[in-house]
Structure formats: C-alpha cells, structure tokens
Amino acid sequence: MGNDARKAPRRDRGNFLYLFTALLVFTVVAPVMEVALPTLGGLFAEVALSLTLVIALWSLRAARPVFVAGLSLIAVNILATAIWMLAGREGAGVLAHLSGLVFLVLAAVVAVRAIFLPGPVDLNKVTGSLCVYLLIGIAWAELYQLLHAYDPGSFAGVAEQHGHALSWRLLYFSFVTLTTLGYGDVLPLTIYAQTLTATETVIGQFYLAVLVAVLVSAYLSDARGGTDAGAGD
Q1: Predicted model pTM
Q2: SS3 of the chain: helix, strand, coil, percent, to 5
C-alpha cells in the first residue's frame, strides 16, 4: 500500500503537462501543417483536435459522471466532424462546434476545480492555470464559429475564409482578443459579436491578473520556503 500511495502523486503530478502540450500542438502546429500540407492539413487538424479532447479528458481525471459526459461529447464531436468533412453538411459542422464548445467549458471547469484542490501550489497547478487560459481562447473561437454560422455578417475580415481556414482565422482572432493585441484585421460588426469580444477581453485580463498571478506568486513563495528550510537544516 505504501508503494501505491507513493505512485499516485507521481502519476498525477504531470497530468496538466500533457494537456498543455496537446493544446499547444493544436493551436500552433495544426494551422502551420494545414498551410504546409494542403491535402493532409485538414485531416491533421481534425486528428489533432480529437486527440486534444481525448488527452484533456484523460489528463483531468474527473469523476465518473463527468468522464462519461466528456466521452459522449468527444464521440459526438468526432462523428459530426467526420460527416461535415466527408459530406459537407453544414448542420454537422454546427453540431461539431457546439459539442466541442460544451466539452471545452466542461474541461475548463474541471481544471479550475483541480487547481484549487487543497495542497501546496506546485508546477502542475501553474501549468493547469495556463491550460485553462488556452481552453478559454479555443472555447471562444467555437463561440465565434457558431455566431458566424448563425449570422455570416458578424465579423469583417473573414469573408474569403471557409471550412478550416475560417476556423483558424477565428481561433487567431480569439487569441488576439484574449491577449488584447487588437490588430484590427478581423473586426466584430454586430452587437452579439461585439459583446462576445468584450467579454472575452475582460475575462482574459482578469484571469491573468488574478488567478495566474496569484498561483505563480504562491508557487515562488513555496519554492523559496522550501529552499530556506533546506538551507536551515
């Protein structure tokens, strides 16, 4: 039993690192691959997204009901995406974005709960806070996709994009908004788009200023405390 107790923390210690790596691959590598390999890039993007969702579900180690719900959402997302890619059904594309959005929100909530579990703030929790930040950006991109499907005139600067090109364009816009860079090449035109954009900006700034800053500060404080204790011994 003692060995099992020692193995459990080791097994959980790096769970957010896997999710963080998968999110970076999806947000950075997948768009580049689609441009470099036009014939296989779209397939790589969908495989990357599906793997990211699966890794997210595995990394978070949620309770069984949440795990079943997440697995169901992933299955719906993969099936709807396959129908969208193979048959060109726009309704399936909307379902894929909707199921992806619900899963991302679920994953973010579970991750935030894991971050605030009792115990010292370690590197895994800090990495988890960064994962939530990336999940927010991807989730808002899905929201923008759904809004664009409802009203194609919601955004300026995306008129010539379709399919995956539109997805990457709105993902780019989401992170530009989340980080308040505001290049102006994509603009929200309707009141709904402007409201979503403003909300993402506020959430992004408060999240970095409050949660991530507090976690990093606590992590550095704990690390210094451990160093001082070791030096005292």
Answers
A1: 0.83
A2: 85, 0, 15
